[in-house]
Amino acid sequence: MEYQNIVVAPTPGVGAFISGVDLSEFDDASLIELKKAFAEYGVLFFRDQQLDESKHIALARRWGEININRFFTPVPGYPEIAQVLKEPEQTANIGGGWHTDHSYDQEPALGSMLYAKEVPPAGGDTLFANCAAAYEALSPGMRATLAGLRAVHSSRHVFGESSSYSNEMSGRLGNAEAATQDAVHPVVIKHPLSGRKTLYVNPAFTLHFEGWTAVESMPLLQQLYNHMMRAEFTYRLQWAPGTLAFWDNRATWHYALNDYQGERRLMHRITLDGGRIAA
Ligand code: SIN
């Protein structure tokens, strides 16, 4: 038996549902298997978890160091937890486009644990995409073209003061003056956990290939994005209160759908420190 302490049910496209584990209390043997499943599937989904703020933080600490988000509003009293909130009267949502978090950092975050507190009666799903499967489906010619290419990523145009996203989000994002990060990463990385080759560019934060202009880069980047968002590499998660998704930023993209106008959606997100990534 590959997994003896947890039940793993892979989802089409990317990810796996995990059952047979209470995330507020589990033994080290289960933790070893959860880490193995995380490396294998890129995003893990859990239903019916009872996690108050302290238990959510304790869960994250069993995995690694918590990365305190610079831009999100924290849950009152818990700086470790970012509030991902859309009120009924607000029109823009957080994360409403394909992206991977923190690619603008020199050492991008490992991933995030997003826990559903309040969800709309319909809508508000999150899409996930499999960046390793997308790489593996490229032609040998395209893979050869991408080998050795590096791309420039930035936070400035998204979280900086003059960005339209920051303006739309007024009140829910802050600290625009801290949007000073730029980083250069290989376009194809060797995933630090799985060892699989993985595409590491995303529409939100990637600006251009190193040594190329943005105009020169855009056709090839757009072609990669169109390929990566193909339906067969994606999974659409329908949330319920108590659902937790834990994604790996180095293996997946995600996209929060904004199709529940007039309803409230509240999620708690804890992000974990990662490390340098390399080809
Ligand atoms: C995010 O991009 O972190 C938010 C995802 C979501 O709310 O589903």
TrEMBL record:
Question: Which controlled-vocabulary keywords does the entry list?
Answer: Dioxygenase, Iron, Metal-binding, Oxidoreductase
Report the SUPFAM superfamilies cross-referenced here. Clavaminate synthase-like
Q: Name one GO molecular function term.
A: 2-oxoglutarate-dependent dioxygenase activity
- Every TauD/TfdA-like domain range: 11-271
* Record Gene3D superfamilies: Clavaminate synthase-like (3.60.130.10)
Q: Do the record's keywords include Ligase? A: no
| TM regions (residue ranges) | none
Membership in a protein family: Belongs to the TfdA dioxygenase family.
Protein name, per record: RdpA protein
